Amino acid sequence: MPNQSTSSNEIDIEFRDVTKRFEDVVAVDNMSLTVKRGAFFSFLGPSGCGKTTSLRLIAGFDQPTQGDIFIGGNSVVGIPSHKRPVNMVFQQYALFPHMDVSENIGYGLRQRNPQPPRQEIIRRVDETLEMVRLSGYGKRRVWELSGGQQQRVALARALINHPTCLLLDEPLAALDRKLRREMQIELQTLQREVGITFILVTHDQEEALSMSDRICIMREGQIVQSGSPRQLYDEPVNRYVADFVGKTNFFNGDVVDAGDKGIAVKSESGQVFVGMQPKAAPGLVNGSKACVAVRPEMIAISATDEANNSNNITIDGQVTNRIFLGEHTEYLVSTEGCGDVMVLSPKSVESMSRSFEPGDKVRISWGSNAALVIGDT
Amino acid sequence: MRIYAIVVFLFLYVPIGIIVLFSFNAGRHASELRGLSVQWYGKALSNPFVGDAFVTSLIVALSVAVLSSLMGTAAALALQRLKGKIRILFDGMIYVSVMIPGIVIGIATLVALVTVFDLLNPLLASIWPEGTKPPKLHMGYASVIAAHTLFTMSLVIILVRARIAGMDRALIEASMDLYATPWRTFYQVTLPQIYPAILAGFLLSFTFSFDDFIISFFVAGANTTLPIYIFSSIRRGITPEVNAIGTMVLAASLLLLMTAQFLLRERSSR
């Protein structure tokens, strides 16, 4: 479109008040969002939260019940998927079993009208094979390939078309853990190389955190919070996000002192916690129900007789479980009044001080800047 | 239990085995074996009546196979999109049409066609221009083919439906996502995925139509298909020639059925 404004040039995908209903189920509920061109964007949430539907709305497999969707500034509502400039990598790859690897990858080019010349298609298929490190695999049947190779064929089949935006529907879910890690890195590198927008759907928070530069956390068809991985991890707006992104200890209580510098929350057992409110979600006042979230790696574990450090919240308890995780040791500490608390102790600390066994009396502590006070939902 | 199974299988296959064996009989009576020879095959193949009946059967069976695989596939693809109660209704009707005994289809088609012909023939005669001979609708190729197709189309629908159901829906979406129009998606992705089922349906329809006696008997009119020929020649006594024809039909049918089975199995294992 010649008359695009400069601002819409930077935004690749936009949802404006989009709702998608399947009979009486609302899969996407009045959702609005923008994805910047060249971003690695993730929809994160449990199954049934509407993240896959959102992706299918962009791809054009489903049409929104209400609202408008823009790709590159143009509304695509009512436009069928074969006329949209986006391509998808499917969860089970959906490679055509009756075609070899080259035929699969060249499929999109062969559908173009006018069709590029044969030599051109062959050249681009070879180029793309090389890009996904599968040179020489062109004549293989797709079912002869390993999971990781099939994954790369699926990527190549989408990327060869130079889409404005690549959609990835749980692309790594079918791979084993080690391969998944490799493919995560490969995907990131690829995204930087080709410079197009990637939109990923995943239920794996680790995957979303490690790959994306923007994450949108969804629940029941709505966006709960969107932001950079760091923002979501450090300043979750509510318990749902804090629970979904990373591991967290929660302490429930009532706000007793809502000051500017920090909020004090008193639990039922009388323990007072002090913490910060996330900037994105202010609004807690005295008396409101709140939840104090403390990441397990922010908690220090020490012997009860050790001299007090600078941490201002201390609780005594007893180790009930210890899991050695390699780079970390995870302790479960049972406390009086505050329930079970999870503590992650890095190996560097472990090797300096003595480690604790189940049954040992310990003292756990953290500074008030480590605690986040959020709404209890 | 094992003895019981053996007895059942003997009961099923010994008569067929005897027919095959006696088709190689050197003697001229069906009931006593006097050395082996293939002379009856020669006799059967050079018999002009057998030849005519064979050609008739072939025309009918081929037409039935082509029609039912085309219409059955189209119907299966359309039914796939139906949902809810209408789908249950259609599914039920398809299975019922497979289960209806041949004799019922035969009589029903006969009655229906005779009624329609009786209505249409005077009508055609009245609107036909003076001086030319009006066409007269009657039982013939069309009626046998129609009656057989009625039944075999359901077989094709069931086979193709099963194949479509087993197909990854994402393949079609992937094709659409890669800029293929619905029509191109159909012949580049859907058709290659379901053609084994269509081919198997084609072969089954052919076999069914080629072997069918009951329905043909009612609606074939003056045409003599191979099973009808066999039936009428048996009334003059069972000769080794009939056995030879039977054996040839059996061999051809088995070959087609095994091909169909192979097609269905080979593809689904992937």
- Sheet with the most strands of chain A? 6 strands, mixed
Order of helices and strands of chain A: HEEEHEEEHHHEHEHEEHHEEEEEEEEHEE
Helical stretch tally of chain A: 10
CATH superfamily of the largest domain in chain A: P-loop containing nucleotide triphosphate hydrolases
Uncertain segments of chain B: none
Integer-rounded radius of gyration of chain B: 23 Å
Write a concise synopsis of the structure shown.
With 377 residues, chain A is α+β, with helices and mostly antiparallel strands.
Commentary on this structure:
- The complex is a heterodimer of chains A (377) and B (270).
- Chain A is α+β, with helices and mostly antiparallel strands and 377 residues long.
- Chain A has 3 domains: 6-234, P-loop containing nucleotide triphosphate hydrolases (Rossmann fold); 248-293; 295-368, OB fold (Dihydrolipoamide Acetyltransferase, E2P).
- Mean pLDDT of chain A is 87; it is low at 1-8.
- Chain A has helices at residues 6-10, 51-59, 101-110, 118-131, 147-159, 177-194, 205-211, 229-234, 239-244, 347-352; strands spanning 11-22, 25-36, 40-44, 66-71, 74-75, 86-89, 165-169, 197-202, 214-219, 222-227, 249-258, 263-266, 272-275, 289-294, 300-303, 313-324, 328-335, 339-346, 361-366, 371-375.
- In chain A, β12 (263-266) and β13 (272-275) form a beta hairpin.
- Chain B has helices spanning 2-23, 39-46, 48-80, 84-99, 102-127, 141-165, 169-177, 182-211, 214-219, 226-234, 240-268.
- In chain B, α3 (48-80) crosses α6.
- Chain B is globular.
- At the A-B interface, β6 of A face α7 and α8 of B.
Q: Which features would summarize this protein structure in a list?
A:
heterodimer, A: about 375 residues, alpha+beta, Rossmann fold, OB fold (Dihydrolipoamide Acetyltransferase, E2P), 3 domains, 6-stranded mixed β-sheet, 5-stranded antiparallel β-sheet, 10 helices, 20 strands, about 35% strand, B: about 270 residues, mainly alpha, MetI-like fold, 11 helices, globular
